[in-house]
Design goal:
209 residues; alpha+beta; six-stranded antiparallel sheet; five-stranded antiparallel sheet
């Protein structure tokens, strides 16, 4: 017959090993990037421009970027796509503000959110006719590897016109959870043993009372 302490230790090792091997079950919920940091750092995004001069610069903090663009030639349709693929499934959310260019043709100016690639499922955020130039807590669900981002589209005269400027702030997107590795096994066993000791102490106090 095995000693009870030996059985307990064996159970702890088995439980800790299971948590390592099946970490995706124990820690299935995604973590979230606060701002354009880590996996969603601006250096990991792709900036594609068509007939335009564009830039992306940090805002007042890590949770904000500013996308600025203007056409290279007169009366030419421009597209600016700023995209990245999600690291894992979860929710994407952000606040936005859009400054229309000062041009008679600014009615064609728009900011869209790319939710699933360059063509499918692009959602118009702005509306110059109603004066919609900003919004808060825009959110949508994503799957792992889904292309997301922002699109500035315009067709205006570049002579004397100001840039179209989009500010994205309070950005949040899912990142892969930390999965325990074999190197973490001793620490997991230690936590289990500490929890068991505390439980035995509590039971002993109850018996003495």
């Amino acid at each position: 017959m095995f000693a009870q302490s030996t059985l307990n230790r064996g159970f702890l090792v088995a439980a800790a090993t299971a948590s390592v091997c099946c970490g995706s079950l124990v820690m299935a919920a995604p973590s979230y990037a606060s701002g354009f940091t880590g996996y969603y750092n601006p250096v990991n995004w792709t900036l594609d421009t068509i007939n335009s001069t564009s830039s992306v610069v940090p805002g007042s903090d890590a949770g904000e970027i500013i996308i600025s663009t203007r056409p290279d030639t007169l009366n030419t349709l421009l597209d600016v796509n700023y995209t990245i693929r999600t690291e894992t499934a979860g929710m994407v959310s952000f606040d936005w503000n859009y400054q229309f260019p000062s041009s008679p043709a600014a009615v064609n100016s728009a900011l869209r959110v790319i939710r699933n690639g360059d063509i499918d499922d692009n959602v118009l955020l702005t509306n110059i006719s109603t004066g919609t130039t900003s919004g808060t807590n825009y959110s949508f669900a994503v799957t792992a590897g889904q292309e997301i981002g922002f699109r500035l589209r315009n067709n205006f005269d570049n002579s004397g016109s100001s840039n179209a400027i989009a500010t994205i702030s309070n950005f949040s997107a899912p990142v892969a959870p930390v999965i325990p590795t074999p190197a973490m096994l001793p620490g997991l066993v230690g936590m289990w043993m500490a929890a068991m000791r505390k439980k035995r102490q509590q039971e002993a106090v109850k018996e003495e009372a």
